[in-house]
Amino acid sequence: MPVTGDQSLIKKINQSIVLEMIRNHCPISRAQIAELTGLTKGTVSTIVNDLMKDNLVYEIGPGRSSGGRRPVMLMFNKAAGYSIGVDLGVNYLLTVLTDLQGNIVLEQTSLYQDLSYDEILSLLKKDLRTIIDQAPSSTYGIIGIGIGIPGIVGNDGTVLFTPNLGWKDVDLKGVINNEFQVPVWIDNEANTGALGEKLYGAGREASDLVYVSVGIGIGTGIVLNGELYKGISGFSGEIGHTTIEVNGKKCRCGNKGCWELYASEHALLSQAKSLPMFRGGDNREIDLESLIRLADEGHTEVINLFNQIGEYLGIGIMNIALSFNPELVIIGNRLSKAQQWIVNPVKKVLSNRLMPYHREKLRVEFSNLGVYSSALGASSLAISNFFSDSKVTLE
Q1: What sequence ranges are listed for the domain HTH marR-type (predicted)?
Q2: In which band, very low, low, confident or very high, does the pLDDT at 234 lie, cut at 50, 70 and 90?
Q3: Are 347 and 380 in contact (CB under 8 A)?
Q4: Can you list the domains of the chain with their CATH numbers?
Q5: 3-state DSSP call for residue 261?
Q6: Which positions ≥6 away from 54 have C-beta within 8 Å?
Q7: Is 292 left (phi over 0), alpha (psi -120 to 50) or beta?
Q8: Which of 271, 276, 275 is nearest to 310 (CA)?
Q9: pLDDT digits over 20-64, tens only?
Q10: Which of 56, 195, 202, 290 has a C-alpha 20 to 30 A away from that of 227?
Q11: Which letter does DSSP use for residue 38 in this model?
């Protein structure tokens, strides 16, 4: 729809363009902004003055001159406000406070086992309060909370179903909003993980990628043409519940033979119980970290178990490559800690089974954000919506 005569709308659009230019290219001068955006120097100067009054932009002194007066350089004030991102896992909570550029300022981790919804909610509120109370003072304070959930989330933010937590139709968004009185955004944790990788991690240069979140279960976040793909109802990415064994194990989702039953952290821990070292009343704790330590010590049976999990992981990634033909698949979340023992089995499966046409340009990498992908992506939801107040999409 063409815009004519609405000067306030045009000003808002131009302000958004200038702010994005400063956020993405600072330090930058007013003249450079005018040159890159096509806006007049007067328009840029007026907008910059407004942004400085709003404490979103500040000057840092003169830059290099190509002749004449040295230009005054501008910086984005990343500390004008802070966002909270939460990765709400099946057995952990990771809560981070980030500045407006996505840099982690504070973090809080809580581990748990087999807690009810009310117990996890109580813990979540406690961790959020801890982060909020420790947040530095700023112009805009806490601008929002983003939460990644291991399950299906409705377009209104309702948590519809989380197979590995047993939640159904939970209004977590409303509860957290009422408690802390800030905007709350909720999405599937693999989607927020994909956003985290696209914005801050291994996927920054990729336009088509699939993020595979391998924790207790498996979720996938899909980015196509640089945008998060969510499907017609917003439920895409449940590839962890695709069938790889027709008459396989029963899954909590109601299906049988789901990929996550064979290639996840839960699969690893379940199969570890049958290893000789854990039989006969051995009281050693079985968790991912202890298994990694045993593999580091050279325990062959543990290394073989990681290899087996890697093979099944490779099978699922092969299916992803055949379905989406992405340029990049990123393996993240907790099982990425075991990269040393699963990377070769994954690559071997792809080399032996995947058609060369799909394999030729495919890259498979492990997250360089580690366990922070989802929390950072969740935080970015709040940040992008904070700035969307000054953005308008024209049709």
Answers
A1: 14-59
A2: confident
A3: no
A4: 7-76 (1.10.10.10), 82-194+374-389 (3.30.420.40), 204-367 (3.30.420.40)
A5: helix
A6: 80, 139
A7: alpha
A8: 271
A9: 999 999 999 999 999 999 999 999 999 999 999 999 999 987 767
A10: 56
A11: -
